[in-house]
Write a structure and sequence with these properties.
Rossmann fold, 259 residues, 40% helix, 11 helices, 6-stranded mixed sheet
């Protein structure tokens, strides 16, 4: 079952700069939830707080009622959280399969000592995870690239590889940071279908995205951020019609023109 994420009064300060201020929202299990806002609104910073890459200055973050504020990414993986990045973080000199298998470390039994000794249960698990990775690649149309070095693939394919790596972690909560950035329209349509399949596999999905067509097609609810603060929460249609959101994206003149 998908995980429930609750963000309560989260603030993030870097020196004298207020990056996030008292942000609160809840993502129910099984939802596809959008985080939107203009550039510099704090969306990726909030993702980094949830995923353990930043430690918030204040607030609470829970996954299924377990407090995870300030937990490192490795600990959060055990709570069922996985994420992708705006700019895919791949090992470019390694093959696609090897990159996807990096998502399997949290599922290997034992620890570094057992892994180095190549004990039987370790090798059995590695074999099973390798097949699972190959199946994921095949299911996402990337089976042909398994033995290809990552630096030989396009930016759009890098995003697909990173998604497969995240899914190999068997997450219950998946954070997608601008998954449609740089993709042509045809691949955005494929991405929409992929995210729907992910949700159908009982994974809660939170998306940071500028592509409002994708947000409208996918999300159950959205939160709009502006200058680190929550501007509004509701459906994507509500957000697109809200004068405050229009002003944040386009300026006050656009609101006056629409009035």
């Amino acid at each position: 079952m998908g995980a429930r994420l609750a963000v309560r009064d989260v603030s993030l300060h870097f020196g004298g700069v207020n990056v996030l201020e008292d942000v609160t929202f809840t993502v129910e299990a099984g939802q596809i939830f959008g985080l939107v806002g203009p550039n510099g609104a704090g969306k990726t910073s909030l993702f980094n707080c949830v995923s353990g890459h930043y430690r918030p200055s204040a607030g609470s973050i829970t996954i299924d009622d377990d407090e995870v504020l300030g937990s490192p990414p490795a600990t959060l993986a055990r709570h069922g959280l996985a994420r992708t990045f705006q700019h895919p973080a791949l090992q470019l000199r390694e093959t696609v399969l090897e990159n996807v298998l990096l998502g399997a470390h949290s599922r290997l039994p034992g620890g570094p000592a057992e892994w180095s000794l190549r004990l039987p249960r370790t090798t059995r698990s590695e074999k099973a995870l390798r097949q699972e990775a190959l199946d994921l690649l095949e299911g996402h149309g990337l089976g042909w690239a398994a033995k290809t070095r990552a630096d030989e693939l396009s930016h759009g394919l890098h995003k697909g590889v990173e998604l497969c790596r995240a899914l190999l972690m068997k997450p219950r909560l998946l954070l997608l940071d601008e998954p449609a950035a740089g993709l042509p329209h045809s691949e955005v349509e494929q991405l929409i279908e992929t995210v729907r399949r992910v949700r159908d596999d009982d994974i809660t999905v939170v998306i940071v995205e500028h592509n409002m067509g994708l947000i409208s097609a996918l999300t159950d609810r959205v939160v709009v951020l502006d200058h680190g603060r929550k501007l509004m929460e509701g459906s994507a249609a509500d957000a697109q019609a809200d004068p405050r959101v229009i002003e944040a994206y386009l300026g006050k003149d656009a609101v006056d023109d629409a009035a």
